[in-house]
Amino acid sequence: MSHACSVFVTGTDTEIGKTLVSAALLHGLNALGVRTAALKPIAAGAFERDGVWHNDDADQLDAAASVLLPPEIRTPYLLRAAMAPHLAAAQEGVTLEIAPILACHEAARQRAEVVVVEGVGGFRVPLNDTLDTADLACALNLPVVLVVGVRLGCISHALLSAEAIAARGLTLAGWVANRIDPAMPCAADNVATLRARFERAYHAPLLGDVPYLTPVRPEQAARHLDASLLLQTLRAASV
């Protein structure tokens, strides 16, 4: 499919809502009539059901995408242990390499109009002795959406992540505030601070401010995201 575009979703840390936001973006793009696919190239933490290995994050992305990819394309590296991927891979005798991920991404682009690629952990998670997820993002050369888990310390984590993204020549297409700590004081002020700094330094818009949700549902989170703004940015970047 020609003119397909993609986005790389990373986060300020692990367990801050990358999968929730990625799935919510898929729902939002679907509502715009866009054919979407999701890639979770590396997933650590798997369980077996009916003879098939699953990962919770990958399953959530499958449920949100309008184009279902074969598991071997959606997640070329599905690791059993829920730990840092380079350690889980070493336990299984697997070497995490970028080339197979690039091939899977290209296969996904042939099937969908927008491909959402969710990273693993934060932006600098090791993949092997020499590479990390920043290298993967560079090899894919995609616009990046940064998910910020709004909790104590998030401003520094967010600015350091944005700086690392920009230092590699990647475009910060936008960011999403995900309010994971319902008791955090001055949460709105933290979001406002980041919004001003991201716009000034990177011209990166706030794509959404997701409230603390219980239960956590991507469809509900999608109501707090501007998928049309993201789509406009991605299409402009792919021209």
Description:
The chain has 239 residues and is an alpha/beta fold. It has a single domain, classed as P-loop containing nucleotide triphosphate hydrolases (Rossmann fold, 3-Layer(aba) Sandwich), CATH 3.40.50. 43% of the residues lie in helices and 21% in strands. The chain has helices at residues 18-31, 56-64, 71-74, 85-92, 98-109, 133-140, 154-167, 187-202, 218-222, 227-238, and strands at residues 5-11, 36-39, 42-44, 47-49, 52-54, 77-79, 114-122, 144-149, 172-178, 206-210. The strands form 3 sheets. A 6-stranded parallel beta sheet has the order 2-7-1-8-9-10, sandwiched between helices. Helix 7 runs parallel beside helix 8 (187-202). The protein is globular. The model has no long low-confidence stretch (mean pLDDT 96).
Characterize this entry briefly.
By secondary structure, this protein is of the alpha/beta class. The protein has a single domain (5-238), classed as P-loop containing nucleotide triphosphate hydrolases (Rossmann fold), CATH 3.40.50. The protein has helices at residues 18-31, 56-64, 71-74, 85-92, 98-109, 133-140, 154-167, 187-202, 218-222, 227-238, and strands at residues 5-11, 36-39, 42-44, 47-49, 52-54, 77-79, 114-122, 144-149, 172-178, 206-210.
